[in-house]
Design goal:
The chain is 34% helix and 14% strand. It is α/β, with parallel strands linked by helices. It has a domain at 40-215 and 290-358: Rossmann fold (3-Layer(aba) Sandwich), CATH 3.40.50.1820. The model is unreliable at 1-18, 71-84 and 239-244 (pLDDT under 50).
């Protein structure tokens, strides 16, 4: 799914040993955060089905203070105390990554260009999620990653268990009953699906910012090239994707392929027999976007190879509360540019921060 990540990984593996590497190349997410001058914490939560997930927290800005704001503008002027010791009073933001990614993707750019650092400098208590199977969440109370059962999950389980467990933990740790949610790609899919399992979580979220929102993707151009590769992964028991780049079950990729081929935003089709056992019907149920009742901001671009503008239009038409429908004003702005592009700050994050502040 993430072609850019796969290419970069291949390039890195092929570089000669003497090639110059950035000093942060082999640092973990918390280590990168600290190297940038920010406080970092590591937290663990166990899902009800036994996966041990690792979250990373940036409880304040550089030097424990609050930055001047994005592009010199003071977005943190709501008067809320930014001290991480002021339990329940600080603004809280939860960021959820995309397929084959991890918490690191929100902090790889320079501090004034990475959304996690920008929010921390604006007074947010920033939490970065990691879903089951990625490099930070590869533990289970009884299963080993070497067992196929460990990798027998789809978007359904991430939406039903992982994200709710992490959000519950964040609310308890911060004392804040509500938070802002920022998702990229799969981070938006699991949010939309989650509300079909846990509609009460709508009451926990002030606003949801959806970068490259993925629900309907039947117009996505990428699948005409990568559908055969995704289907072939079934023969490898997830071994490749368990290690490169950040780890994921092949079922997740096949579920996205099903979104594309069926033209439906639905639970994972496991075959008629297992569908009957798990869903009570031979066919998987559809996810209803009508159950997402929080204000949602959609951030999309014409150059995205996964999220087509026609699919965004359908997603927007079914969401009850679209607070912002923002098209990035650059024709070649692509899927991963929402995280890694140097101009994402100017093209996306200004609008995103305004959306969050309007609902805080």
């Amino acid at each position: 799914m993430q072609l850019t990540i796969l290419l970069l990984t291949a390039m890195l593996l092929q570089r000669p040993a003497t090639a110059h590497l950035h000093p942060h190349t082999f640092l973990t997410t918390p280590e990168i955060i600290r190297a940038r001058g920010y406080p970092a914490q590591t937290h663990h939560v166990t899902t009800s089905d036994g996966y041990v997930l690792q979250m990373h927290r940036i409880p304040g800005g550089r030097g424990g203070g609050q930055g001047a704001g994005l592009n010199g503008l003071d977005f943190a002027s709501s008067g809320k105390n930014s001290s991480s010791n002021n339990r329940g009073k600080q603004k809280v933001a939860f960021l959820q990554h995309c397929v084959l990614c991890s918490s690191a993707d929100f902090i790889l750019n320079d501090p004034d260009q990475a959304i996690a650092f920008i929010l921390a400098d604006l007074g947010y208590d920033v939490w970065l999620g990691n879903i089951r199977g990625n490099v930070y969440s590869r533990r289970h109370v009884r299963l080993s990653p070497n067992q196929p059962e460990f990798w027998d999950y789809s978007i359904d389980e991430i939406a039903r268990y992982d994200v709710p467990a992490m959000l519950t933990y964040v609310r308890e740790a911060t004392g804040s009953p509500t938070l802002s949610y920022v998702g990229h790609s799969m981070g938006t899919s699991v949010f939309f699906a989650m509300m079909n399992y846990h509609p009460q979580i709508n009451n926990w979220v002030r606003v949801m910012a959806a970068m490259a929102p993925v629900a309907y993707i039947h117009n996505a151009r990428i699948f005409q090239f990568y559908a055969p590769l995704i289907n072939a992964l079934e023969n490898y028991q997830s071994v490749i994707l368990a290690h490169n780049p950040a780890g994921i079950s092949s079922n997740v990729l096949r579920q996205y392929l099903q979104f594309n081929s069926t033209r439906r935003f639905q639970a994972f089709d496991r075959g008629a027999a297992r569908n009957q056992r798990e869903y009570g019907s031979a066919s998987p149920p559809r996810y209803s976007l009508a159950r997402v009742t929080v204000p949602v901001g959609l951030f999309w671009s014409d150059g995205d190879w996964l999220v087509d503008s026609l699919d965004v239009r359908q997603t927007a038409s079914e969401l009850p509360r679209v607070a912002l429908n923002y098209r990035v004003p650059l024709s070649d702005f692509n899927h991963n540019d929402f995280l890694w592009a140097e101009n994402a700050k100017d093209l996306v994050y200004g609008q995103l921060v305004r959306l969050l502040e309007a609902h805080n």
